[in-house]
């Protein structure tokens, strides 16, 4: 077949056509290929390489695939201390239970709202930040700004939560700044209305600098001659950004958008768990925090597993569809 | 070519905006440090922002005299070292094997790893599994469940793939087997990527708290993040000795929280200026299209 292709290229003719006219040639080259290696041969020859795989594969089976299979308890009665696969089948009981659970629908709504707000605010900010950095002439200033902007990414979510409590406390900076406007101190972390703005703005703070790295890398790969040509054509800097820079960034933007849509439902569970309290549940409680309370704090493992499975399936569906969409629209795919 | 007036104005504006971004990014750190040196009275009257008021080192002395704080700090160091070591070994083995195109079943093995990026078992089945394996209140519950990060795995794989094959072929002719090639040829040439991986894993482990929160009940096993979490959540019953008897203490002083936060951030802040370029390299390697 390889020979056929090469010949077709020389003849400037599609390979398929050539195979049709000369099926014998393709047949001959196929028979020349070495026989497909069997597993036994491959393992005997390369057993040392396969032995390196043993521990990691064991890891994936135990800590990744067993829990996936463990979701079977969403359909089986589970008793703490009993079998991890549950005791007996209960069918769709737990699925029906959460479909009829008003709290579930509230946390579902909260998850979608927080996911959407994060996508709207946290996704574009690194792009804008990278574009602004790109306009700096001083390399040194650029490097300093960048280095500082990564810093929040390396902080434990516990520290981030601690800082949020500090800034939003009754005596904190936010209240000091707002005091002339509001008259009195606002107890930010006790008010449901404030949870979303605080959550999203802290997310932007954490992710903006780090998120810009890939865009900055992509910016350096854009062909400098394109800008020169545009300048000769009289394009100003804004036009250059619109017609050269942004199209140059489009593939990486698409890829990251797919990844972000895929993790849409995986809102910052740990941060919410650290920040929320019953007073802000109406806006702060999300699927993962709810199932954590139902499952681990109240021991309804099967019910919580049913909710978790539902969430994972939505997550998987989102990645697959976002990827299919990006493949069709811009031809970039994650795999 | 000369810039237009509009563009020159924009550049001034741009510098201002970026300075504001830098300030906002840095502010919470400065505020934390300022509070840690301030007296509680000044914090509670809402005066402390950037500059410590009522400067004192007493709070540092109080926190540093707490033996549980140091026990937990030590636990964090132990967990980080053990977990990072396990992660590096497993990730290197797997990444090296799947970087070889001759490996039969290569796509299957890659698929096994990549699939877990998009679908996972979820908290509950994981919790049930770890509990039934008897790993609760052991080091293993902290260091094993997240041992391989698929993202890091793919970075290493693409690094190994880009190594010149001739080197390994020459080593094979000289009689080295796969283990020898990996240990004596490949790894010595992979110091940069290994450093990046060690940093990635170490930071994640240093910062992690949730596994410990789920699987550890004993105070003396907690990492420092849980110590902090309990301070911040104001859980006085968790038994910290600050400010006398825990029973009549309704709220832990802000300066105590700030000091504990500063002390647990310091190691990261100290190494950060020297290692941040490795993080960036790592992300760049990872972005190489597989």
Describe the 3D structure.
The complex is a heterodimer of chains A (about 325) and B (about 290). With about 325 residues, chain A is an all-alpha fold. Helix content of chain A is about 75%, strand content about 0%. The longest helix of chain A has 30 residues. The relative contact order of chain A is 0.10. By secondary structure, chain B is an all-alpha fold. The radius of gyration of chain B is 24 Å and the shape is globular. The chains are: A mainly alpha (about 325), B mainly alpha (about 290). Chains A and B meet through helix 4, helix 5, helix 8, helix 9 and helix 10 of A and helix 1, helix 4, helix 5, helix 6 and helix 10 of B.
Quick tags:
heterodimer, A: 335 residues, MetI-like fold, 2 domains, globular, B: 290 residues, 14 helices
CATH top-level class of the largest domain in chain B: Mainly Alpha
SS class of chain A: mainly alpha
Helix content of chain B: 55-70%
The CATH homologous superfamily name of the largest domain in chain B equals: MetI-like
Q: In CATH terms, what is the architecture of the largest domain in chain B?
A: Orthogonal Bundle
| CATH fold-level topology of the largest domain in chain A | MetI-like fold
| Proportion of residues in extended strands of chain B | under 5%
* Largest sheet, strands/sense/barrel of chain B: none
Kindly provide the name of the CATH class of the largest domain in chain A: Mainly Alpha
Mean pLDDT of chain A: 85
């Amino acid at each position: 077949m390889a020979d056929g292709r090469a010949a077709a290229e020389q003849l400037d003719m599609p390979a398929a056509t050539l195979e049709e006219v000369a099926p014998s040639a393709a047949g001959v080259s196929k028979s020349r290929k070495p026989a497909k290696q069997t597993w036994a041969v491959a393992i005997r020859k390369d057993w040392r390489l396969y032995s390196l795989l043993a521990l990691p594969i064991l890891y994936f089976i135990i800590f990744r695939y067993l829990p996936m299979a463990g979701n079977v308890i969403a359909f089986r009665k589970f008793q703490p201390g009993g079998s991890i696969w549950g005791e007996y089948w209960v069918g769709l009981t737990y699925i029906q239970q959460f479909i009829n659970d008003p709290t579930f629908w509230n946390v579902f709504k909260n998850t979608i709202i927080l996911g959407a707000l994060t996508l709207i605010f946290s996704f574009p900010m690194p792009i804008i930040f990278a574009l602004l950095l790109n306009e700096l002439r001083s390399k040194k200033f650029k490097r300093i700004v960048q280095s500082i902007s990564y810093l929040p990414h390396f902080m434990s979510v516990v520290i981030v939560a601690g800082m949020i409590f500090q800034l939003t406390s009754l005596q904190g900076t936010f209240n000091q700044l707002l005091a002339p406007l509001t008259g009195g101190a606002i107890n930010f972390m006790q008010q449901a209305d404030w949870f979303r703005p605080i959550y999203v703005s802290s997310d932007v703070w954490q992710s903006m600098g780090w998120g810009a790295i890939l865009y900055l890398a992509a910016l350096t790969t854009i062909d400098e001659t394109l800008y020169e040509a545009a300048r000769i054509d009289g394009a100003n800097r804004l036009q250059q950004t619109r017609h050269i820079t942004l199209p140059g960034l489009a593939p990486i933007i698409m890829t990251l958008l797919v990844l972000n849509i895929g993790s849409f439902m995986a809102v910052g569970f740990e941060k919410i768990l650290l920040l929320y309290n019953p007073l802000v549940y109406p806006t702060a409680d999300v699927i993962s925090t709810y199932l954590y309370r139902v499952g681990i704090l109240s021991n309804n493992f099967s019910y919580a597993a049913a909710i978790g499975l539902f969430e994972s399936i939505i997550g998987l569906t989102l990645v697959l569809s976002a990827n299919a969409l990006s493949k069709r629209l811009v031809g970039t795919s994650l795999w | 070519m000369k810039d237009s007036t509009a563009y020159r104005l924009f550049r001034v504006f741009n510098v201002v905006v970026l300075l504001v971004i830098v300030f906002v990014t840095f502010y919470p750190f400065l505020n934390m440090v300022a509070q840690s040196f301030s007296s509680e009275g000044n914090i509670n009257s809402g005066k402390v922002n950037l500059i410590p008021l009522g400067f004192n080192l007493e709070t540092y002395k109080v926190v540093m005299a707490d033996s549980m704080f140091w026990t937990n700090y030590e636990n964090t160091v132990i967990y980080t070292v053990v977990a990072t070591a396990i992660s590096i070994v497993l990730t290197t083995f797997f990444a090296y094997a799947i970087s070889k195109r001759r490996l039969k079943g290569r796509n299957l093995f890659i698929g096994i790893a990549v699939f877990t990026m998009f679908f996972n078992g979820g908290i509950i089945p994981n919790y049930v599994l770890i509990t039934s394996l008897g790993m609760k209140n052991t080091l293993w519950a902290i260091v094993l469940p997240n041992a391989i990060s698929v993202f890091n795995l793919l970075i290493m794989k693409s690094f190994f793939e880009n190594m010149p094959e001739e080197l390994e072929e020459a080593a094979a002719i000289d009689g080295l087997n796969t283990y020898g090639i990996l240990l004596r040829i490949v790894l010595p040439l992979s110091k940069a990527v290994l450093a990046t991986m060690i940093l990635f894993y170490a930071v994640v482990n240093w910062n992690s708290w949730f596994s410990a929160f789920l699987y550890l009940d004993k105070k003396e096993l907690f990492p420092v993040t849980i110590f902090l979490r309990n301070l911040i959540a104001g859980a006085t019953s968790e038994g910290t000795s600050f400010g006398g008897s825990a029973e009549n203490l309704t709220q832990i002083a802000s300066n105590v929280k700030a000091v504990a936060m500063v002390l647990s951030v310091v190691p990261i802040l100290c190494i950060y200026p020297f290692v941040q370029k490795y993080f960036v390299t790592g992300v760049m390697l990872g972005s190489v299209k597989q």
